[in-house]
Each structure stands twice: as structure tokens, then as C-alpha cells.
Amino acid sequence: MGKSLEKILLIEDENSILITMKFQLEEEGYLVETAKTYKDAVKAVKGEGNYSGLNEYKYIITDNQLPDGLGINLVKMIRGSEDKQYNNQDVKIIVMSGTMKEDNIKQKLQHYNVNLFLEKPTPLSYFTKINLEKL
């Protein structure tokens, strides 16, 4: 088989982008769990419902602008939580935003060890196993 079984949590509210990215990542051999809202992303991190939980993910890829919250708040929860159950410094985090410059996301998250910031639209070719493993 030769494919990875590493898990990715993909958080994106635009259905067409979510489906396309999920397909691309699965083609690269990843198991992909998805969330479309901040509320569902928090459930995923906590391992509620059918979600695996924070410590099961190798990567978290999140859009910053979600219908009910901001991806940067999820990053703060994961990297800065005093609750050890939800604090993970090992998971690789990618934040995507179509308004990165306006939101000044990089500056807001400089202390939270985000692995990569991507401005949308992001070419699908970026989401390959080779590129992700460089993080």
C-alpha cells in the first residue's frame, strides 16, 4: 500500500474548497476529518462525537474566517491552553486566510507556534505529502 495513515483535521466552511482539499489530501494517503464551523472544530479537538481528538492529528489545516468564529482562536486554544488535555505543541498547524493582510494574522499568532500561514486562494499542489512533511 505504501500510503500514510496520518490524520489531518481540515476546517473549512466553503463546501467546494473543503471537498477538493479533502480529496487531494486523501489522494496523498492521509485520513482526513473535516469541520465546517468553529464549534465543530472545537468538538474535533476535544474528541467529541465522531472526531478523533487533538492528539490523534498530525496536521490541522484551518481557514481563519469561519461562520461562527475565528481559526486563530482555535490555534490559541491548542497552543496556549492551560488545560493539558487541549494543549498540543507537536501538531502541525496551517492557517489559511483570504484576508491575511487586513487581519494581521501573523502578528496575532506569533507566539503560538503556527507552522505555516497561507493566503487564499492556495494552490492545491501545495497540499502534497512532500510539502506537508517539510513543516
Helices and strands in order:
Elements: E1 7-11, H1 15-27, E2 31-35, H2 38-46, E3 57-63, E4 65-66, E5 69-70, H3 71-80, E6 92-97, H4 100-103, H5 105-108, E7 116-119, H6 129-133
Parallel strand pairs: 1-2, 1-3, 3-6, 6-7
Antiparallel strand pairs: 4-5
Mean pLDDT: 87
CATH topology: Rossmann fold
Number of separate structural domains: 1
Tell me the overall shape.
globular
Query: First CA to last CA: what distance?
Result: 24 Å
Query: What are the segments in which pLDDT stays under 50 over at least 5 consecutive residues?
Result: none
Largest sheet: 5 strands, parallel
> Strand tally, please?
7
CATH homologous superfamily descriptor:
Response regulator
The CATH class name reads Alpha Beta
Report the β-strand fraction as a percent range: 15-25%
What does this structure look like?
With 135 residues, the chain is an alpha/beta fold. It has a single domain (7-133), classed as Rossmann fold, CATH 3.40.50. The protein has helices at 15-27, 38-46, 71-80, 100-103, 105-108, 129-133, and strands at residues 7-11, 31-35, 57-63, 65-66, 69-70, 92-97, 116-119. Strands 2-1-3-6-7 form a 5-stranded parallel sheet, with helices on both faces. The protein has a two-stranded antiparallel ribbon with strand order 4-5. The protein is globular.
Question: Which properties best describe this structure?
Answer:
135 residues; alpha/beta; Rossmann fold; 5-stranded parallel beta sheet; two-stranded antiparallel ribbon; 6 helices; 7 strands; 33% helix; globular
